[in-house]
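Researcher: If only I could read backbone structure tokens as easily as an amino acid sequence. Walk me, if you will, through where the backbone shape changes along the chain. I have put the entry right below:
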Amino acid sequence: MRIGRWIAAGLGLAAIGAAAVYAQYRNTEEPEYALVRAEGEFELRDYPALVVAEVTSSGDRQRASGASFRRLAAYIFAQDRPKGGESIAMTAPVLQQETGKGAWRMRFVMPAKYSLATLPPAPADISLTEVPARRMAAIRFSGNGGSADLATREAQLRGWLAGQGIVPEGEAEFAFYDAPMVPGPLRRNEVLIPVPAAK
């Protein structure tokens, strides 16, 4: 009986903690976009130009993800800048894209108040750049966002695009909106694929 109570108490605390983290991330700044079309779980969105900090790491997706996240977090939280450096607020989503065999690029979108001119300088291995305005096809899903899920959702999105007669203009990018502590059913993940904007 006592063990059961401890387990129940532990699960209750974990649920409370997860809910707190979930609420915190739901208040995180996200890039604004114009919804062009929604059809079931599929969307077409127009994004404005976005300022990002990006870094590329090698290895399998999970290992590269951890290394890149830590590196970009050190930049935005001023851990690798002189003491008293300005911290940058975390935004969502974190973007990841395969750029070559075994190479993965991760991007943190900078808060809208920043431009390339006003961001704190970055170390040599981190690029500060502006992603041009673009139209993206998107599919949203919950879960842990593992490689198999991403591949399945990307295939579904490509199938929908083919059915619409829309030809992708680039490779898929994966978007993760929540901290790892957030339970899978509450997480928001997306696969994004650039497509031509309407003329």
